[in-house]
Write the structure tokens for this entry.
Amino acid sequence: MASNKKDQIKTDGIHGRYGRFRDSRNQNDKDKHQVPFLVRTHWKHGQITLDDFNKNQTQEILLYLFLSSKLRDIVDQLKYQLDGVYRRDIVFKVSNVYLDQHGVQKKKDLGTVHSVKSGKDESSDLKDHGFKIGDILMVEIETKNQNKQPISQIAKE
């Protein structure tokens, strides 16, 4: 351990050993030179259309992400921030909303991530799908089993 306070700051990072900001030695090599950016993420129980998005009929959450963030990381952050989406039968459909060359909003499906099970889409990152800083994410939250109680009654909106 370090002998004085100045040496302790150098060895433990900015805010201590278990602090909020860790030393750069603990990060992945590909994330060392990237900075996180704020992504507007709109979510809704059920299907989302661009009309719902334009009429502000969705909930919005702000997430800090990297371009190398996987779809599973995005879903895990949403599950952490939203109440009632820890059920085992929930499916998250992630889409990207962007402006095309003519200034028209377009929606591109990025993939589907199951709440618990692993799948083929969850290992792809935002950069693979052509996500750019300034784009908006839309997440549709659906249940696979229709006989159970709807998510909208469980989640606190």
